[in-house]
């Protein structure tokens, strides 16, 4: 992937966002556009070759980007403290600002969102807020509420960051690895976050939706994707054995096959 930067307008500042295009040429409008939203510690580079592989398999254009403060993207200066609404801010402000900066008209060129973990939650929030500006969504190991398992595993990640080579491994993917890790880790372990939920938002989703969960996911249970299906009629579920928190790494072929089937569905006109 060839990485580039574009400035978005966010909270009165210009913030540079790292991004890359993969798959079919961007101008090939007959091909669907898939936008990849990374997990809580992710970045453009941490997707590795999966976005290109998926886009090649389904004949899509792909946009991969690092959220502010991740990968090589900038962030607000000074950066305000994160709140439990940080994913809402990414879905409702940052992602639309990125589309605007890249001249993507989401009323005419409606994207598919492919989100992993926190990125999956952001995709759901975008789909609920802007139903006429999305073609569909694929969410891998999304969070719709906070589970004890999630908090315990995120606490273990903090210990690993401080005592193992996890910091060095993540530093290959983030310009400021300490900031990237601490912001994510601190808010998830903040007692104020325990009551976080997006369950009440899900009923507004109208687009085709595929929700994927590994049966061995260390950060969430099947309650997450089954909770989505209970609130969004027609949701397709994919529950994968021998799969942890990253289905696109542990079971890429199964994920690609399910996405190909989803994209073959006819897309309803925007409401």
TrEMBL record:
Keywords: Hydrolase. Residues 34-258 form the AB hydrolase-1 domain. GO terms for cellular component: membrane. It comes from the Bacteria. SUPFAM superfamilies: alpha/beta-Hydrolases (SSF53474). The keyword Chaperone does not apply. Gene3D superfamilies: alpha/beta hydrolase. One of its GO terms (molecular function) is hydrolase activity. This is Alpha/beta hydrolase. It comes from Rubrivivax albus.
């Amino acid at each position: 992937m060839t990485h580039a930067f574009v400035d978005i307008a966010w909270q009165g500042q210009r913030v540079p966002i790292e991004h890359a295009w993969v798959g079919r040429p961007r101008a090939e409008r007959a091909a669907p556009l898939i936008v990849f939203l990374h997990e809580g510690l992710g970045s453009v580079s941490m997707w590795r070759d999966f976005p290109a592989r998926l886009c090649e398999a389904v004949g899509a254009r792909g946009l991969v980007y690092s959220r502010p403060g991740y990968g090589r993207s900038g962030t607000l200066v000074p950066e305000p403290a994160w709140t439990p609404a940080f994913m809402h801010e990414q879905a409702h402000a940052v992602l639309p600002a990125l589309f605007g900066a890249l001249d993507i008209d989401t009323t005419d060129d409606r994207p598919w969102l492919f989100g992993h973990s926190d990125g999956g939650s952001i995709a759901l929030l975008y789909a609920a807020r802007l139903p006429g500006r999305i073609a569909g969504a694929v969410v891998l190991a999304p969070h719709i509420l906070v589970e004890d398992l999630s908090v315990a595993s995120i606490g273990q990640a903090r210990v690993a960051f401080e005592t193992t080579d996890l910091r060095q491994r993540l530093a290959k993917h983030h310009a400021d690895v300490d900031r990237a890790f601490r912001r994510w880790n601190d808010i998830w372990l903040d007692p104020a976050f325990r009551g976080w939920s997006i369950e009440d938002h899900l009923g507004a989703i109208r687009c085709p939706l595929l929700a994927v969960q590994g049966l061995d996911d260390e950060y969430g249970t099947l309650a997450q994707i089954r909770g989505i299906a209970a609130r969004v009629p027609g949701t397709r579920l994919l529950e994968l054995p021998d799969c942890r928190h990253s289905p696109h790494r542990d079971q890429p072929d199964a994920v690609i096959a399910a996405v190909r089937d989803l994209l073959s569905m006819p897309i309803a006109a925007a409401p």
